[in-house]
Amino acid sequence: MESGMKAAYFDNNATTPLDPRVREAMLPWLGDLHGNTSSVHSFGQAASAAVEEARARVARLLGTSPPELVFCGSGTEANNAVVFSCARSTDRPHHLKHEHHLVISTLEHPSVLAAATRLEGQGAEITRIAPGSDGRVDPARLLSAVRADTSLVCLMLANNELGTLQPVREVAAGCRDLGVPVLCDAVQATGKIPVDVAELGVDYLTIGGHKFHGPLGAAALWIRAGLELDPLLIGGGHERRRRASTVNVPAVVGLGVAAELAAEELPERARMLAELRDRFERGVSRLDSVAIHCADVPRLPTTSHVAVAGVQGEALMIRLDLAGFAVSTGSACSSGTVEPSSTLLAMGMPETEALSSLRVSFGIFNTADEVDGLLGAFEREVAALRELAPAAS
To answer: Is the dihedral of CA 213, 216, 217, 221 positive or negative?
Structure first.
């Protein structure tokens, strides 16, 4: 990175910088204001009131009622709680249901995929539905996998890698007719597109504050009224006995403010983010042999996923980082070997193209000048890597 140049962050699908307005709201609860929400004295009651105000703010963002929301430490915790709860027998809560079947998309976050794999090792049956080449799951194909013994269907609202929006509403409507509950991981979508639980028609929905400029360590699980949840954490009566653990008041307050800001600013944010994404894609498409994935299907305004022929995505990411631009790949590195993204392979993408891919994800603090700087660096580093390729072979 050039001396005096400020690094530009384009990995907002991984986590977003904290909005200064959210930080300002949290600061009093990191100082003079403190208290356990379960305490009856004035400190505890003030903390409890702040948490309930935050709950109301999140509820407004999701179009629901505050009592249906449970605050959690992360989207992973929330997803785990639902998957494991739906698998357990109601009369023998520490055992799997006698016949347990789960239907999930292969696009799901690891918190769903890994939980399903653990259940499979305990005797459950898992049906995994891969997306098409457009990065979206076919709702008819998913619904055809639902059986009489299906305990849960899991379909995320927006894929974190590609940004593609999934047909959650259609799947939820079909599952409702079959009497099967649906978990929707909306962590990547919330704060970027409208998310309304009534419109989606799902039974469980999860969000995470750090994906829309709120704090790390604050998430929420929405549970449709009338449904039960076998708590993942036990040992206290917190969150209406649905999640034991002393409430992280500063983080929850921050989540509430982030939700309120997102609700107020969503149309303008979506317009601005889409302009930045489109500006990047117009520029990068001028380079030779660059493919923009899933550009013709509904997707998040934050996300651009590109493949650069003849270039290793991991190498390009590192060179861009050294040039002052943070982006990401979906590849995983284990024991020094780079493996292609399982999401891209599930779409039928060739391994070479998957390994040449990068994700660029935008946030509300990015600027057009930063995008232009990224494009310049992108062109330079791609050219440099292509020059090195013959020598490397």
So the answer is: positive
